[in-house]
Amino acid sequence: MSTSPLTIDHLIPQSLGGSDQLNNLALACHRCNERRYNFTTGIDPETQLETPLFNPRKQQWIDHFIWIRDGLKILGTTPIGRATCNRLDINDDFHNDGFIQESRQYWVDVGWHPPREDPRISE
């Protein structure tokens, strides 16, 4: 097991024919990379439709997600955003292990988070 905080994620998994080319790679935390596994789609909880996951090489974060004001949760604002949040359990909604919330609270406390340049922070 690596002690590095980030892993290299294949946006199209190698098991599905994805390459090691730069345009198919993105940095991800271990937790998100493990939860995404080899999925390229997720279920949008609002529409119940299978939807592509967010691709940071082709899409802009601000078009699909917002932070709630306290910086502890990310909300998907589109089917892609909601399906990605759901698939990655990005807010600890299913397991309630608290790790992500605890980390984000620390980042807020020391002034690292949420990104101040995002004008779409939700109430």
Automatic annotation (TrEMBL):
- Keywords carried by this UniProt record: Endonuclease, Hydrolase, Nuclease
The record, for Pfam families, names: HNH
Its Gene Ontology molecular function terms? endonuclease activity; nucleic acid binding; zinc ion binding
The answer to whether UniProt assigns keyword Nuclease to this entry is: yes
The keyword Nucleotide-binding belongs to this UniProt entry's keyword annotation = no
User: Could you tell me which residue ranges the HNH domain spans?
Assistant: 5-38
Q: Which Gene3D superfamilies match?
A: 1.10.30.50
Under what name is this protein listed?
A: HNH endonuclease
The lineage, from the top, is: Bacteria, Bacillati, Cyanobacteriota, Cyanophyceae, Coleofasciculales
